[in-house]
Write a structure and sequence with these properties.
Structural class of chain A: alpha/beta
Helix content of chain A: 25-40%
Largest sheet of chain A: 5 strands, mixed
Radius of gyration of chain A: 23 Å
Shape of chain A: globular
Low-confidence stretches of chain A: 1-7
Oligomer: homodimer
Number of strands of chain A: 15
Strand order of the largest sheet of chain A: 5-4-3-6-10
Chain lengths: ~400, ~400
DNA sequence: ACTATTTGTTCAACCATTGAATTATTTGCG
DNA sequence: CGCAAATAATTCAATGGTTGAACAAATAGT
């Protein structure tokens, strides 16, 4: 999962090449212009001879391609730019959420090459049925990818709930799922992806975690450490530390929605009192703004709220200010604890961020001891509503970039 | 800082040996019985030939020694056990705290080989003077270490405050320090340690961080991820994630004392309201227990509190219960956020933990969503009051174990 | 005394990197 | 137009570290 390519065990001679493959490919991925072999040599510290050999492997494995030479001033033989291949391995991203299914394909360069969203209320649908529909969409995505010369090398599924290491969805309250064994339910269907050494066929993870990963790998790349908050019906956070998602001991990190902001306040369904979710959850904001709860689709409610706030509706503005203040109390605590300098508001919060950011910043300014020396940035997410699906697909291709040897072993 | 020996840049041929030196030495350090070369080969996946070569380097560099063969049943040539050398490099740990100075020396195996504590109220003492006294103690420690065949390879200084990357103590409120440039103040004195490639001569860090590191490397080794809370006048936390201390973007993580537990409550000197420190800080507990604040030394106050609680004093018990509840609210938030399964109460909290743990556990049980599936352990720290100094010294030797090539380059 | 067994070392083969020399391809200048 | 300078990329013998198999060492069991 980590971006650092740390050899876990023995370092044999082959590992040496493996590590340098990852190093060079990582540089190509991180560069904003197609680098030449000479650029890579100076950037990595390897000799040009080694870089050439490594690049030869990468070219043979169709992980990188040669681009038109970037125009350069001065004399000398022109460089040949290296770019991530637009054909070759790709990642499949899947998402089951309360009111839609989403499937997307992301290539090595991080480009979204296929994207489908199927709106439907998934709450009355049985998990097996929802997954079956997803498999259907995935099949179409696979065919579309193949048409574009892409091979699906792995898949990741985002769900709005707690997932354990084996892909068992312990609890997805807003979806009504409980102890859903996703891999077992998918076993009867045709495989979604190819088998690639080192890349798991399917990872199931929390939607907030994968949305945070999407933000981490978006262009331009975000900071190495930040907090990504998904404000849906529940409030989840993805915690990215030093360029890697921190999942917690059991993979259940990020339950920011149950940080206490008014310890003697409203009871919460978690059993505690005064949890953030009771003050800054989507339902709480909508209720505080006096909106009828009848208009159910979550994205509609958020859009309506933004409209009202834009129009200067006093109730909406007050509701957003209160929610932002509650959010700020919680975020200030997290920033104090983890010393982060960036907070990203994603999911349903993104369109509301013009009204949420100011009170959040105000709470940070008054509660964070170190804010005086180091400003904290609070900004909306750059990815859209389907950030989780894109992040899921991106997490697959990042694994290949981080350890290309597995892919090369397969195709050669 | 990380335990994973990830090559940052190019992986050259020499790195290969460097990595395997670290791998083998790490195994020797982690083993609970002196392993043979054959054990190491199976454990690491290297061949016996390679392990022999690597061990030869380690023996020549005096990082490991051969122990008496561990008695083993069955036939075969007896193995020669390998242990971390009890002579060779050692770490120097320093601590400036409100009411004492501490210096200690820890060897490769983690044994404390020298330990001095000088009690004195440091608040009226100028930083330069305090550091001068520390240098004096360090000189004695160095001489003592030399007598035992130890070479000080690096030093770490623990201070109760915020430290930036360059060793500047931005703020140590309870010590009265502000913007104290520790490395500059130490420049006039004789060097505390040898120069070893890859090991910084002096690291200055927060006391809570280093105490957490001490706990991480104590025997038996603690879990890979936990929260270590130092309850002194202020409340600091060291956050250990996946076997590495998480310092935050600027090194200022762990300010748990300012998590809000009663957002509309007592004003705090940080500018916020209802911070944990106002309810579970040492002064708050002492005041709530009705103890005269005159008995100033912090450890005395804590000891007195424990005495009273032991004797069944109602005020003391109530004060501890309230403090534990406030602490539990904050800890529950952290556990929700980071999904940790272990919380260690250290510093002044350690002797009070019999009375603090129950309310902390109660709050966790009622506020942590995932507590039903995965119990959270709350326990006192195993290291004593000078955990920070021991952790500081330990952090130095861990660097050598994690990258032995630097030490070997020096000595031969 | 002999065999089975396990440990540790030796040595030729192998693999990836290295560094210098070589080839390739352009710009700049007379 | 032709040549020198400059930069990019490849070739190749040398090097350093790991490998695997064979071998030496040392013990327990029979």
């Amino acid at each position: 999962m980590s971006l650092t390519n740390a050899p876990a065990g023995a370092v044999r001679q082959g590992s040496l090449r493996e590590l340098n493959l990852a190093l060079v490919l990582g540089r190509i991925a991180a560069a904003d212009r197609p680098p030449s072999r000479a650029d890579l040599a100076t950037a990595t510290g390897l000799t040009r001879a080694t870089v050439s050999a490594v690049v030869e492997d990468l070219l043979a494995g169709r992980l990188v391609g040669e681009a038109d030479p970037a125009p350069r001033a001065g004399a000398g033989r022109p460089a040949r730019g290296l770019v991530l291949a637009d054909q070759g391995p790709a990642g499949l991203g899947l998402e089951v959420n309360v009111d839609y299914l989403a499937v997307c394909v992301v290539d090595l360069a991080g480009q979204v090459r296929h994207h489908t969203v199927q709106r439907a209320d998934l709450r009355p649908v049985a998990p097996a049925e929802a997954l079956a529909r997803l498999v259907e969409l995935a099949g179409q995505a696979r065919a579309d990818a193949a048409r574009q010369g892409l091979t699906l090398a792995g898949a990741a599924l985002a769900v709005p709930g707690l997932v354990d290491g084996a892909g068992l969805v312990r609890l997805a309250p807003n979806l009504g799922w409980r102890d859903v064994p996703v891999p077992a339910l998918l076993a009867g269907h045709p495989p979604l992806t190819e088998q690639v050494p080192g890349v798991p066929a399917l990872v199931v993870d929390n939607e907030a975690n994968l949305a945070a990963l999407g933000e981490l790998h978006s262009r331009p790349p975000g900071p190495a450490s930040f907090l990504h908050i998904s404000g849906e019906v529940g409030i989840g956070a993805g915690i990215v530390l030093d360029g890697a998602l921190f999942r917690g001991v059991r993979g259940w990190s990020g339950e920011i929605g149950h940080l206490p902001v008014h310890p003697e306040g409203r009871p919460c369904r978690c059993g505690g009192q005064g949890c953030l979710e009771q003050y800054a959850g989507q339902e709480a904001i909508v209720a505080a703004a006096g909106l009828a709860r009848a208009e159910l689709p979550a994205d509609t409610a958020t859009a309506r709220l933004a409209e009202l706030a834009e129009a200067g509706d006093a109730d909406a503005l007050r509701a957003l200010h209160e929610a932002g203040t509650a959010l700020g109390v919680a975020v200030a605590g997290v920033v104090n604890l983890l010393d982060l300098d960036t907070v990203v508001l994603g999911g349903g919060y993104a369109p509301l961020s013009p009204w949420l950011c100011p009170p959040v910043l105000a709470e940070i300014a008054s509660r964070v001891l170190t804010a005086a020396w180091s400003p904290v940035t609070v900004r909306p997410a750059t990815l859209g509503a389907e950030a989780a699906a894109v992040g899921a697909a991106g997490s697959v291709v990042r694994q290949i970039v981080a350890r290309p040897a597995g892919w090369l072993a397969r195709s050669g």
